[in-house]
């Protein structure tokens, strides 16, 4: 029994960083990170849309800070988080309820490909004015 | 010897509901993204929101989004904490904080949606200018 490596609680960061990771491990880690980011964003979203109660002028003043290029890029990156969490969430449901455990690695690859394509498609939609200016 | 163990109280309901709400949120999220990013301008001004909110369906959709999103998110956070061995005072503290902040922000979001006035005429389209 001695060959079993015991989990060292004091070194949990190093332990988590060092074990060999396959696609499923990465999916689990990234699902957590994106999930925490998204719930944090939902709180921020409710906070930042609350000026809607104060009428047109107050809201348009407030929202003008968030339509700058910097925040548009952040918004695009947010979509990456949404995409990963959505696609991997669907993968989890398929694994749990549709025998997806047999092909979860393929599902992971497909979801990454679909996600990357959708990410750049959304980038085109969000920045279409800027892109059109470039190729005028 | 195989023993049957009752799953009641073990969190099996929240496990199922996390998947159900997740799938609903994916569908609602697709609608939300089409609405907000159909063109670079759509959805981001007060007038666009006002025009949209004249329909009670959009209000119900947004309220569903807030409630389900909050539930799914906070249940997910609690799921992360459940991976660790917690003392009972830690469990009580974490659940209380999640409940208090979750309820406060959910109610705040609901209030924001319901505060948007109904106006008589609307010539602007659904997607907005």
Give the class-level CATH name of chain B: Mainly Alpha
CATH level 3 topology of chain A: 3 helical TM bundles of succinate and fumarate reductases
CATH second-level architecture of chain B: Up-down Bundle
> Into which percentage range does the β-strand content of chain B fall?
under 5%
What is the rounded Rg of chain A? 20 Å
User: Quick one: CATH class of chain A?
Assistant: Mainly Alpha
| Structural class estimated from helices and strands of chain A | mainly alpha
Radius of gyration of chain B: 20 Å
Mean of all residue-level pLDDT scores of chain A? 85
Distance between the termini of chain A: 70 Å
- Approximate helicity band of chain A: over 70%
Q: Kindly give the count of domains of chain A.
A: 1
Put simply, the count of helices of chain B is: 4
Find the CATH topology of chain B. 3 helical TM bundles of succinate and fumarate reductases
What string gives the helices and strands of chain B in order? HHHH
């Amino acid at each position: 029994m001695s060959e079993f490596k015991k989990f060292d609680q004091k070194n949990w960061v190093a332990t988590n960083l060092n074990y060999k990771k396959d696609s499923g491990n990465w999916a689990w880690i990234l699902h957590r990170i994106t999930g925490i980011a998204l719930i944090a964003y939902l709180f921020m979203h409710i906070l930042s849309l609350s000026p809607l109660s104060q009428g047109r002028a107050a809201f348009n003043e407030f929202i003008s800070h968030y339509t700058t290029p910097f925040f548009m890029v952040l918004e695009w990156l947010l979509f990456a988080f949404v995409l990963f969490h959505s696609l991997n969430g669907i993968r989890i449901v398929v694994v749990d309820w549709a025998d997806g455990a047999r092909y979860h690695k393929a599902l992971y690859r497909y979801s990454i490909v679909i996600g990357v394509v959708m990410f750049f498609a959304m980038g085109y939609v969000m920045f279409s004015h800027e892109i059109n200016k470039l190729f005028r | 010897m195989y023993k049957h163990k009752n799953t009641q109280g073990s969190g099996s309901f929240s496990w199922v509901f996390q998947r159900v709400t997740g799938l609903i949120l994916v569908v609602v999220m697709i609608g939300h993204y089409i609405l907000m990013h159909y063109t670079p301008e759509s959805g981001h001004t007060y007038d666009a929101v006002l025009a949209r909110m004249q329909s009670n369906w959009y209000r119900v959709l947004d309220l569903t989004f807030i409630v389900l999103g909050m539930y799914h998110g906070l249940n997910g956070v609690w799921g992360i904490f459940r991976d660790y061995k917690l003392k009972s005072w830690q469990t009580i503290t974490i659940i209380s904080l999640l409940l208090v902040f979750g309820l406060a922000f959910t109610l705040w979001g609901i209030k924001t949606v319901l505060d948007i006035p109904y106006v008589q005429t609307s010539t602007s389209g659904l997607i907005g200018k």
